[in-house]
């Protein structure tokens, strides 16, 4: 049986991400790869991942664009939206008509429309009965995910869960919390470095992130380490 191009892309993605996790890996770069592949394969405009910090507050750890990050942050600030519902309920949440949920999530519905999104699908990241975050897809074209797409998204969400916790976290919950906090702390440093690169090179934040990842890969270093170097250079230290 000949597989379709999308099926091959899914298989290639699972293999690539699984290979990445065999040895030590950069969790932020792994999750960024995952959301980028997820958006591309499933025909979404953007994708992002939320995980809780050490105090249990959800934060954005990876996103494919500034606008999807903005919508995710808005949901966190307003404490409303499908990302939070998927996280708290442990069940996938699909919104394909923002007008229909204006009474329930008014700020979310308004902001997503302003950003040009037409649908959203949030999938909880689950480890057995525990929910450790959410994978969120944003669409700007008519038609939400099909049942087949949703199943593929579920598989990619499982990869994200494994990538975040890894097998060591199954044995030691303190290590799991440390890994999650490290990812969030790294993201803060990376955002600061993106701002510096954006200003110095006169590019937008997405291009700045591409430059940062390119520098990290070319020197075979972690994103957060390169980001700290950029911040130190900018501050004259």
TrEMBL record:
Annotated keywords: Kinase, Transcription, Transcription regulation, Transferase
Superkingdom assignment: Bacteria
Segments forming domain ANTAR: 170-231
Gene Ontology molecular function, alphabetical: kinase activity; RNA binding
Matches recorded under InterPro entries: ANTAR (IPR005561), CheY-like_superfamily (IPR011006), GAF (IPR003018), GAF-like_dom_sf (IPR029016), GAF_ANTAR (IPR012074), WH-like_DNA-bd_sf (IPR036388)
Record-linked Pfam families: ANTAR, GAF_2
Entry keyword annotation includes Transit peptide: no
Name of this chain's protein: GAF domain-containing protein
Species this chain originates from: Microbacterium proteolyticum
């Amino acid at each position: 049986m000949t597989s379709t191009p999308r099926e091959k892309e899914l298989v290639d993605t699972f293999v690539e991400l699984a290979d990445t996790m065999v040895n030590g890996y950069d969790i932020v770069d792994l999750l960024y790869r995952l959301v980028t592949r997820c958006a591309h394969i499933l025909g979404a405009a953007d994708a992002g991942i939320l995980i809780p910090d050490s105090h249990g507050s959800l934060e954005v750890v990876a996103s494919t664009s500034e606008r999807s990050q903005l919508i995710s942050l808005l949901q966190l600030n307003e404490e409303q939206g499908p990302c939070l519902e998927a996280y708290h309920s442990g069940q996938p949440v699909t919104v394909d008509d923002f007008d229909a949920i204006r009474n329930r999530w008014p700020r979310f519905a308004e902001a997503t429309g302003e950003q040009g999104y037409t649908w959203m699908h949030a999938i909880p990241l689950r480890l057995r009965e525990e929910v450790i975050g959410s994978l969120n897809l944003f669409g700007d074209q008519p038609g939400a995910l099909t049942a087949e797409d949703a199943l593929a998204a579920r598989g990619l969400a499982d990869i994200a869960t494994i990538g975040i916790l890894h097998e060591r976290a199954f044995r030691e919950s303190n290590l799991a919390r440390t890994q999650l906090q490290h990812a969030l702390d790294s993201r803060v440093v990376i955002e600061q470095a993106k701002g510096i690169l954006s200003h110095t090179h006169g590019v937008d934040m997405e291009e700045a992130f591409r430059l940062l990842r390119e520098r990290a890969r070319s020197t075979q270093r972690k994103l957060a380490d390169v980001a700290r170097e950029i911040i130190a250079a900018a501050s004259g230290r």
